[in-house]
Design goal:
Length: about 60
């Protein structure tokens, strides 16, 4: 594993994430995988609106 350099939009170095902190984060994710799940995501099944005829009826 290597340290990660984080840059801002203008290309200036913002911070460096150390290998030790990356390993700590990796261990936390292995113990509790729910910390990577994003809250507030609504995944809905899209309505199928493709029709095979001109009546515009969903399949």
């Amino acid at each position: 594993m290597h340290p990660v350099k984080v840059f801002d939009n203008s290309g200036n170095l913002k911070k460096i994430i150390t290998v030790k902190s990356l390993q700590k984060r990796s261990d936390q994710i292995i113990e509790t995988p729910s910390i990577i799940r994003k809250a507030g995501r609504n995944i809905k099944n899209p309505d199928n609106k493709i029709s095979t005829n001109n009546d515009n009826k969903p399949i």
